[in-house]
Design a protein that fits this description.
heterodimer; A: about 450 residues; alpha/beta; six-stranded mixed sheet; about 25% strand; B: about 575 residues; 15 helices; 27 strands
């Protein structure tokens, strides 16, 4: 009798009737063959593998994480509500101990969606992992969270949302940004002045194969997670590192993904990218699910799989090892780096240029964060798009100190609504989300 | 005239109907060890004095295959399964003579690895040495393309008498269930075949040359001839018979819960607008998860004879049963005894029932009648609680498209139909607890046999078209054709309905009863390298489970009779002793 050793939850929401456009890679058909494989394997009959029904997120769940321009309904389609809601449902199931771990196999994905949302970037409108995490923090008092993003593209949206948060460790493994969208995610991008070293970027050279990925997971990610001791580990489980993926240039395999999952032991995995929908997804997803459930996955392999053909070169191995050492060093020096970044300043300001490739929008942000040793720091973002939408977004972090709360309030109160399309206040300690401006 | 026969655990119910209504109804004792004689004597008794020619339809619902499976199978046949990448097929091993050979297809039915014919030869030798005559062959994704199963069959043909192929069973995906279902079919095949052949021959000797229809777990029927390759479909037809028997009493716009309150269990099902709700994948029996289409039913150990106990000062009922109620000579107090004490049951030994209630009353330190009342109320509350959980279960079934999510109407029963011997006694209390209009089905003690008699022939067809590969197939129907890239979803639907009609007619459906539905209708643009390469079309069509045409007269008649009797209340006095 087949049985899961770890009680594992699944939500399968393939959104068979939703696509960005008819021939876009993010299309109706994307999870079709994964579903075929899952059904043919009889996955949902396995004792201890539980299929949950997808749920909806509420407007407030979105507001807790994002500033949507001009409002939530403009940025969310029906399938976004369900996809994000599915991640949330899995999160709840883990917290309620209905399951030990869970996997939301959903589309559309979310890891390129940043805190401010003017449109879709990299096929993403809203960040479904971040919304889930912020809900769990609100509803269950979860504090320390680690997110390991194993999508082939840099998780720049998730990085942006947690840039200043010392309670969230964000680690992204991805194909070197010099060779792939979105072109970011280098080791020196290590988080803001209140959270330096809590963002860790691990760019891997093209044609890295299982050997390189597993080296990083075993020798870099695992020890860092063990030291950080998060309340929960979330895996942004993109599957586009696969050797057959049409959009990327890596050499990972289904067996490799399963082993990665086994070592990472995520509490919650959320599907991100992966566009080799026939040659990879059915096998990679099956591998991840079996590995999460603590079951035997040794007989999974892609049609035509030949490990010799995709073995990484010596040069790649050396590059991978070097990058691993660099990242470990940053992690070890995180406190000193944080001190250095603060350097007696009261605020730090930076300018961000953001391109929304899916919707063709340019955004410019003036970001200001209060340097704070007691919390993540009050954050103020003045954002304008080339579509003429200018907004002011004020974020008071969940565990904000008195001073940061006061400053956040003040920024919001002082803002002149006539200068902006909208002025937003994201007051996390009070779970209060305010808007000023024209209706 | 139609004969409907349902074999139950203790009684076999037989009815004879014609267009004017119910002509005869009888009960014969079920001899579990001689079902053949049970069935024959039922048919003989009900048709006594009737001209054999007047009988046009005979529908049998038996426990033959169910009993075989529940009692444990002693397989004397072989299983050969083809493995592809995925979960190790060793996990699905059915018995000793189970062999895994190489050969794999992918999700679109394309060959990944050819069949290992060399390995197959060795297995054939082993099976022959073990004196095995029958074999089941199951491939992964064979419901997308049976080519490997057919190749194996061709290689085995001359060595074995009967070969069961996995793709015959269902167009649904689920390899482990396909293995289990093929295993069950092969297991019950010889006994099923011999049994019905014998019934048919004996009836012919008596001049009754009528095609035998057999009730299936999905509440539909199939001809005996059509059942030969899928005898497993006849398991658990008993609960299906009862549900079908309740259908005439639910309105065509109603959502009804059917609760069949028996001695050992209460069986529950849901009917939406006169169509029973089906299991999403297939029925589970004796630990076997199958691809056998079945009505969604739930059986809970909560019957009139279930043990009633006091635990920590609270009444608990079931799930175990220790024989009859005390009123009928049983050892422990039951809900039936409570009914007896409350004067709701004309039969039974009232003194023994009261003694049973007194045992409970002493523990609770309450008067006997009050205790009986509490037992009765608790029983009804439990029935309603389980029924609600069944409805919640159906409502929480995952959906896979945005459309289904937003359209996802939730079932809210607006009627409860009670079946089973003492059903009438529970009507008022269940209505009170549930807040849902409740009635006892007229002739509810015979509803199962009526359901069998009324049930129409059902079947299902799954069709796949892949315009990139230029093929259309319905593997269950052994149908394969080439298509052009211009082939549309509409063409596919038309083809599916055409195949369905042929299949239904082959299985014994009459033209009037071909109420066909498209169950699944999906089309995916296959995008390869940023341009459309073709369409993947998936259609599933069924003959909707339901009743043969012409049943309305009978149900209307029964309803009228019931109205004349002032409902069922003459047989069940009010619990508080007052009459309306």
């Amino acid at each position: 009798m087949l049985k899961a050793r770890r009680k594992t939850g699944l939500i399968f929401f393939p959104a068979f009737d939703w696509a960005i456009d008819p021939t876009h890679p993010e299309r109706e058909e994307r999870l079709l063959y994964t579903q075929d494989q899952a059904m043919e394997e009889g996955l949902f009959d396995i004792e201890g593998l539980i299929e949950f029904k997808s749920q909806l997120v509420l407007e407030k769940d979105v507001q807790r994480t994002h500033f949507c321009v001009p409002d939530v309904s403009a940025m969310m389609t029906e399938s976004h509500f369900i996809s994000a809601g599915s991640a949330k449902r899995i999160g709840i199931a883990v917290m309620e101990k209905e399951i030990e771990s869970g996997f939301a196999l959903v589309r559309p994905p979310g890891h390129h969606a940043k805190r401010v949302v003017h449109g879709a970037r990299g096929f993403c409108n809203v960040n479904i992992e971040a919304m889930m995490i912020e809900y769990l923090r609100f509803a269950y008092g979860v504090r320390k969270v680690a997110i390991v993003d194993t999508d082939c593209h840099h998780g720049d949206g998730t990085q942006d949302i947690y840039w200043h948060d010392p309670d969230t460790l964000f680690i992204s493994l991805h194909q070197d940004g010099r060779t792939l969208y979105p072109g970011t995610g280098f080791p020196e991008d290590m988080g803001g002045p209140n959270a330096a070293g809590r963002t860790l970027n691990i760019p891997l050279p093209p044609r890295t194969s299982a050997e390189g990925f597993l080296h990083i997971i075993k020798n870099v990610v695992r020890p860092i997670l063990d030291e950080f001791q998060p309340d929960i580990v979330v895996n942004s489980a993109g599957q586009d590192n696969h050797y057959t993926d049409p959009l990327t240039d890596m050499n990972f395999s289904a067996q490799g993904y399963a082993q990665l999952t086994e070592i990472l032991r995520p509490d919650i995995a959320v599907l991100e990218g992966g566009y080799s929908i026939e040659g990879a997804l059915p096998y990679v997803n099956l591998g991840i699910i079996l590995a999460m459930a603590g079951m035997d996955y040794s007989k999974i392999s892609e049609p035509g799989f030949d490990p010799d053909k995709i073995r990484q070169t010596e040069q790649v191995t050396r590059q991978v090892e070097r990058i691993g050492e660099t990242v470990l060093k940053i992690w070890k020096q995180r406190d000193e780096l944080t001190e250095k970044r603060r350097a007696g300043k009261a605020f730090e300001e930076r300018t961000n240029q953001i391109y929304y490739d899916t919707d063709g929008i340019y955004e410019t942000q003036q970001e200001k964060v209060r340097i704070c040793s007691d919390c993540a720091g009050a954050l103020r973002i003045d954002s304008s798009s080339d579509r003429g939408a200018r907004i002011l977004a004020v974020h008071i972090p969940l565990h904000a100190c008195e001073k940061c709360r006061e400053i956040g309030r003040q920024w919001y109160d002082e803002a002149d609504p006539r200068s902006y399309l909208r002025v937003f206040l994201q007051n996390r300690p009070d779970d209060e989300y305010l808007t000023k401006g024209l209706p | 005239m139609i004969i409907g026969l349902d074999v139950g655990g203790t009684h076999t119910d037989v009815v004879l109907l014609d267009k004017d209504g119910l002509l005869r109804e009888i009960k014969v004792h079920t001899d579990e060890l001689d079902l053949f004689h049970t069935v024959l004597s039922g048919i003989e008794q009900i048709s006594r004095g009737i001209k054999p020619k007047a009988i046009e339809r005979l529908v049998l619902s038996t426990t033959l295959t169910t009993n075989l499976i529940v009692q444990g199978i002693n397989p004397d046949f072989g299983m050969i399964v083809l493995s592809g990448p995925g979960i190790d097929p060793e996990f699905f091993r059915t018995h000793e003579h189970y062999y895994v050979i190489g050969g794999a297809l992918d999700h679109r039915g394309r060959e990944v690895t050819p069949v290992d014919l060399g390995g197959l030869k060795k297995i054939v030798k082993k099976l022959r040495r073990a004196d095995i005559r029958h074999v089941g062959v199951v491939g992964k994704f064979s419901s997308r393309n049976p080519v490997h199963e057919l190749q194996v069959r061709d290689a085995l043909k001359k060595y074995f008498r009967k070969i069961f192929l996995g793709h015959w069973i269902s167009g649904s995906l689920n390899y482990p269930r396909r293995i289990a279902t093929t295993f069950l079919n092969a297991s019950v095949y010889p006994i099923h075949k011999n049994f019905f052949e014998a019934v048919q021959k004996t009836l012919e000797k008596h001049g009754l040359q009528v095609p035998i229809h057999i009730l299936k777990a999905d509440g539909g029927t199939m001809s005996f001839e059509a059942s030969i390759n899928y005898p497993g479909q006849t398991i658990l037809s008993g609960p299906a018979a009862s549900v079908m028997g309740a259908i005439p009493f639910s309105g065509d716009q109603e959502e009804a819960l059917v609760l069949d309150i028996g001695g050992t269990t209460t069986d529950m099902a849901v009917i939406l607008k006169r169509v029973p709700v089906l299991e999403p994948v297939g029925i589970e029996i004796a630990g076997f998860k199958t691809l056998i289409r079945a009505l969604k039913t739930r059986s809970v150990g909560l019957g009139g004879d279930s043990v009633v106990k006091i635990m920590n000062g609270k009444i608990t009922i079931g799930p175990e049963r220790k024989g009859h109620a005390m009123a009928f000579g049983g050892p422990v107090p039951t809900t039936t005894d409570a009914l007896c004490v409350l004067n709701m049951m004309p039969e039974g030994d009232a003194a023994k029932a009261a003694a049973g209630m007194k045992m409970l009353a002493d523990e609770l330190d309450r008067p006997v009648v009050e205790t009986a009342r509490a037992v009765f109320e608790h029983f009804c509350a439990e029935v309603v609680r389980h029924a609600r959980s069944l409805v919640d279960d159906i409502n929480s079934k995952p959906v896979y498209t945005v459309y289904e999510y937003w359209e996802g109407r939730q079932i809210k029963p607006d009627k409860i139909l009670l079946l089973g011997g003492p059903a009438a006694c529970f009507v008022d209390q269940i209505e009170k607890v549930s807040g849902v209009k409740t009635m006892a089905v007229p002739k509810c003690a015979m509803a199962n046999a009526l359901g069998a008699a009324f049930a129409r022939t059902t079947c299902e067809v799954s069709l796949f078209a892949d315009t990139e590969r230029g093929i259309i197939t319905a593997p269950e129907e052994n149908y394969f054709e080439k298509i052009s890239s211009a082939f549309t979803r509409e063409d596919a639907q038309k083809k599916a309905l055409e195949l369905l009609e042929q299949k239904a007619r082959r299985s014994g459906a009459s033209r009037d009863d071909l109420e066909m539905d498209i169950l699944e209708n999906q089309q995916f643009n296959m995008v390869r390298g940023f341009s459309a390469a073709g369409r993947n079309i998936r259609i599933k069509a069924q003959v909707r489970p339901g009743l043969v045409s012409g049943y309305q007269v009978i149900s209307e008649k029964l309803s009228k009779e019931m109205a004349m009797m002032n409902g069922a209340r003459q047989i069940c006095s009010k619990p508080d002793g007052k009459q309306d």
